[in-house]
Amino acid sequence: MPDTTHRVHGLADDSVMPDWPALCTDEIIELLQRYPSLGTPLHIRWHSPRPLSAAALVDTTAGTIFVKRHHRRVRSVVTLTEEHRFIAHLRTGDMPLPEVFVGLDGQTAAAIGDWVYEVHATADGIDLYRDAVSWSPLSERGHALAAGRMLAILHDAAAGYDADQRHTHILVARSELIAATDPITTLRLQLPNRQGLADYLRQRDWPAELQRMLAPWHPTLSTRLVRQPSLWTHNDWHASNLCWSGAGHNACVTAVLDFGLASRTFALFDLATAIERNAIAWLALEGGGDAVHADMALALIDGYRQVRRLTADDIHLLADLLPLVHLDFALSEVEYFHAVTGSRANADIAYDTFLLGHTAWFGTPPGQALLQAIRDQA
């Protein structure tokens, strides 16, 4: 029977019924037949409240594992394996990432019916921010410093990883549109291969809306972004995707989780995303300036530059990039909600509140103050 008590994070800082049913013991029993060394399930210890897939910690006769399930319209074996190959590369560089287990068929992703599964080892450390909703700021400046340092270490470890770009746009953070000389023409060329997004956009005057959104920010970006070295990046560097050595202000990062949004972008894109995820309480913007945590943004930058050099030009580009860093991913969320879960209401939130609204906020006094605080670090 489906679990009718399980709730997940909604788009309004609320708790809602999930789009995807919670993992159940019977399906995990079937899945683990492909991973005989992992034992048989005893108990599902915890269900993740993240809404875009179903995931759980599972106790088995051989220990505890993390199981994650995607609908086949979101991830195929091919597109999920792209994430796993990047993880494997980073692990060879001693990055603290949980192992992704290989099944009897030699694959790290398993397709069963309408679902595609992955099975990971449990992460080292304490999952301090496990219940934090997306876009909730870090609680300690020391955590922001540690997160910035680990992001820079990841970028060093990613150097030399030359895999092609992801073969999906859905729920992946990419940078093709933001880096294009003409993002509207670039998106128009993508739409024949993104029918779900094209169907949604037919209901909007999207070229005019995107032009108004881009006009204050984009004209000075494309010529500078084209010079950025291409790099595979994490693209969802939020506190809830990190584990920690303790709860104190001097805790360090012990594990990095969730490469679902990873793709080939560039390092400053990933750092800007980390600021967007951890330094602005987007779900509490009615609080005005109180929603801005500039100290966390600056600590992320300070931690990062302890490992990797950032020039004055880098800092200015980081600030100029921030209002649009979400562009490609916001459209991927529109595509997901409209074409996969069939929620017009959530697709509208992704388009109006996330895509257009977040950019517009950077034109307000609190948004301008945050950008200036970053530029002052040059």
Account of the protein in words:
This protein has helices at residues 25-32, 77-92, 141-158, 176-179, 183-190, 195-201, 206-214, 222-225, 267-278, 294-305, 312-321, 327-339, 344-361, 365-375, and strands at residues 8-9, 15-16, 41-47, 54-60, 63-71, 109-112, 115-121, 230-233, 242-244, 253-256, 263-266. With 378 residues, the protein is of the alpha+beta class. The strands form four sheets. Strands 3-4-5-7-6 form a five-stranded antiparallel β-sheet. A two-stranded antiparallel sheet has the order 1-2. A two-stranded antiparallel sheet has the order 8-11. The protein is globular.
Largest sheet: 5 strands, antiparallel
Helicity level, as a percent range? 25-40%
Oligomer designation:
single chain
Structural class: alpha+beta
Task: Sketch the topology as an H/E string, one letter per element.
Answer: EEHEEEHEEHHHHHHEEEEHHHHHH
Q: Average pLDDT across residues?
A: 93
What's the gyration radius in Å?
20 Å
Strand fraction equals 5-15%
Uncertain parts: none
Number of helices: 14
Q: Could you give the count of β-strands?
A: 11
What's the overall geometry? globular
**Strand order within the widest sheet?**
3-4-5-7-6
Termini Cα gap: 57 Å
Structural topology:
Layout: E1 8-9, E2 15-16, H1 25-32, E3 41-47, E4 54-60, E5 63-71, H2 77-92, E6 109-112, E7 115-121, H3 141-158, H4 176-179, H5 183-190, H6 195-201, H7 206-214, H8 222-225, E8 230-233, E9 242-244, E10 253-256, E11 263-266, H9 267-278, H10 294-305, H11 312-321, H12 327-339, H13 344-361, H14 365-375
Antiparallel strand pairs: 1-2, 3-4, 4-5, 5-7, 6-7, 8-11, 9-10
